[in-house]
């Protein structure tokens, strides 16, 4: 399962759009076609917190704050903010901002847009970002006051990803289907939605009343091309101008395309195995440790990254580890590839002779490649995976409902340098509920308390608390980190743009070359 949290994250519908055999029709200079490997399922982050969906959301919906090139919070819809006390933020709203229909943005819209993530009836996929939020209210003339349950140094960074602002009237009328093709969405961003279809794609048009710098492009069309080779041929022919559907393991096929530049940059992501610790043999920690020893993670990493990534050593994306620890990564419990050690762990379990386990996966994307490799490794120690491919949309729906979870391949992309963006997805009980990203089910009152304590920690204390959680995850093995990858974008040389680890303006930055 692949997902994005801002960045990044989920297996979504797998629809293939074939390239035309007759080549591409000429595109207007200020119009661009962007292809994704998966279609967006919702233009509302509460129900579409995945790569394909958030890519479009960030072009349409502004957040109160953004991230600068270093990953630090910076003004967006809020021109400034103060902290009357460590658990309170007072945001000053930018004046003169209007939604794309001309309606003025109000502090009430901004306050409600955050508050709705706290509503259980909304069942927001971004709810874990705001567990420390106690109250959100519009105050004074164009100000929003956010009161936290306790100080949380990660709050601003989380807001830069998930506090997307929509009109209160629209969001309140559609708590469950905002962002759907039937309802759509509306924002104050550089583009507005002209069309959204699950089958024929999305068309964005320039928001002529945008408060910021005018986008160079008048129109951006998003289409889905699920088959990697069909996608590559579409880019090569010029039918498609850009895509983020470049698999780094096929990088050599892309870097030589005439008239196309392939851009690689560090990815804030992690691919891993999630083990459902409350189900069947996976309840046994000896079984989980046996699996960790049996999977050749270096081989999986080499296969999946082709030199544009590296094996993962802990359950955090590489940029987050670097931001927190620098070059001094702490020593964590390890389960290196060792078949004999795997057999020894299995012998200590309640399943010394092995067992059979059903393992569903999405039939498109990287899931099949990873799961087939894992199945071959586990067969060496007597664990027989029965692989069950299913259409990506069905698989995603099943996984997000936490239905019959087993051993899953997951690849999550994140948007901030803060580990508190990731750790609740891994060990909080709230994220173990349907629509949450804790697919292992690992978590307890103790881990929830650790997360609460971490939320207000700073400096060395923060490092030590993150290390304690990473150590527990490594010891108990609800997850097996596999690899990190670079991000890659293929872009026709007629266009240029800005792509970086922390950028949320990739679409708005696109422009004809030379402008």
What are the salient characteristics of this protein?
single chain; 515 residues; alpha+beta; D-Maltodextrin-Binding Protein, domain 2; Dipeptide-binding Protein, domain 1; Dipeptide-binding Protein, domain 3; 3 domains; seven-stranded mixed beta sheet; five-stranded mixed beta sheet; 16 helices; 22 strands; 23% strand; globular
Task: Give an overview in words.
By secondary structure, this protein is α+β, with helices and mostly antiparallel strands. The chain folds into 3 domains: 163 residues, D-Maltodextrin-Binding Protein, domain 2 (3-Layer(aba) Sandwich), CATH 3.40.190; 109 residues, Dipeptide-binding Protein, Domain 1 (Dipeptide-binding Protein, domain 1); 217 residues, Roll (Dipeptide-binding Protein, domain 3). Helices cover 28% and strands 23% of the residues. The chain has 16 helices and 22 strands. A 7-stranded mixed sheet has the order 9-10-11-2-12-20-13, with helices on both faces. A 5-stranded mixed sheet has the order 1-18-14-19-15. It has a 4-stranded antiparallel sheet with strand order 5-6-8-7, covered by helices on one side. β16, α11 and β17 form a beta-alpha-beta unit. It is globular. The two termini are 39 Å apart. The N terminus is likely disordered.
